[in-house]
Design a protein that fits this description.
18% of the residues lie in helices and 29% in strands. By secondary structure, it is an alpha+beta fold. Bound molecules: nickel (II) ion.
Length: 163
Amino acid sequence: MAIIPIRTMPDPILRQKARRVKSIDKSIDKLIDEMIETMHSASGVGLAAPQVGVPLRVIVIGIPEEEELALINPQIVRRMGERLVNEGCLSIPGYFAQVHRAEQVRAKGLDRTGKEIRLRADDLLAQALEHEIDHLNGVLYVDYLESMDELQPVEPTSTEPLV
Ligand code: NI
């Protein structure tokens, strides 16, 4: 396993639409392991494959105190409610901003064994699912801001989630 350097804005891979995974082989298993390790080493709670230079539809989420979640070809099935949250991104280091996210989402995808997983999420998990699936579509949270002036610098003591 290895920690992979995280791509940062304006790397063009962050703006590509990632490809669906057609077969879950050993390379996908290894990618997921490396993404989990990379996410933890960067103190993130989520990571999408394009952020480590791989344009495939794979995401990992690591909410503190919970087991990591890896989803292949994930999709948001339904969004419910709306709330304003602080959000940062490992690919836009040093900043965070307030963005609108759903209160609850329903999502589905495949786990690393190819089994379909359906989940209902709220709080940080819902936010991370929306953020990581956005990455697979080349969307960054800054796209939701009216102006880059809304970005705020991250303080050493800040606790904004990095996804
Ligand atoms: Ni991100």
